[in-house]
Amino acid sequence: MTKDNNSRFEFIFTSLVKNSPRLFTTIQAVLRAYETSKLYRDLKLRGSIIRDQQLVLLPLEQVYNQIPDAWNLSSDQGNLGQFFVTNVRLVWHANLAQNFNVSVPYMQMKSVKIKDSKFGKALVVETQPKCGGYILGFRLHPPERLEAILKEILSLHKIFSVNPIFGVDFKEEEEAPSLEQLKVERVDDDVEIVTTDTNDVFAAYYAEGSDGTEKDITFDEDIGLACETLPEGW
């Protein structure tokens, strides 16, 4: 069952391998991997991503920079908090309320630049339209670090674009052998065909010692049946 906007679609798949749950378990594993890796690719607001003023790291995630005095300029007065730069995303949270936070993965970033604001120079992050098209502004202290932090973010974004981290570990199964590897050379059987003068197809089914001629029939009084005359000595 799938859903797109206000429409729902249902797809039914049947496995040709009888009594094998592999198709079902494979789809369940893929769905579970997709659901548990959303923070690598989706913008997240007010999530449970901060614990004791520290970022809860994702698998394979590394913090490259942590800025303690970072203002979120989403309100008229601004909110003081901490700013994290990792190899997967940018994260900000308020000092007074850990659940007031935002996580912006590099996958959803449209642009990152420095702009003038009523608070002074600010780092402006614009997200892709498909995730809401947010424009987020941050004022970092001291302001002289803005250029260095911008350069660091652009560098990490470039590295992520070349070698993205999706948060899904998988192991490739052994590749099936190619058709060339499965081909077997044709070998002609060493069979000798013997031709005979007879064309009697029943000859192979005669009993041992039979030449195909009819035998004399006698009546045996002991058993009360008529049968072929037994050979001499029987």
Describe this structure in words.
The structure is a single chain. The chain is an alpha+beta fold and 234 residues long. It has 3 helices and 14 strands. The chain has helices at residues 22-35, 146-162, 179-182, and strands spanning 2-4, 7-9, 44-45, 50-51, 54-55, 63-72, 79-86, 89-94, 101-105, 109-117, 120-127, 135-140, 217-220, 225-228. The strands form 4 sheets. Strands 3-9-8-7-6-12-11-10 form an 8-stranded antiparallel β-sheet, covered by helices on one side. Strands 1-2 form a two-stranded antiparallel ribbon. A two-stranded antiparallel sheet has the order 4-5. A hairpin with a 4-residue loop joins strand 13 and strand 14 (225-228). The longest helix is centred in the middle third of the chain and has 17 residues, at 146-162. It is rod-shaped and about 130 Å long. 16% of the residues are buried.
What's this entry about, in short?
The chain has 234 residues and is of the alpha+beta class. Helix content is 15%, strand content 31%. Strand 6 and strand 7 form a beta hairpin.
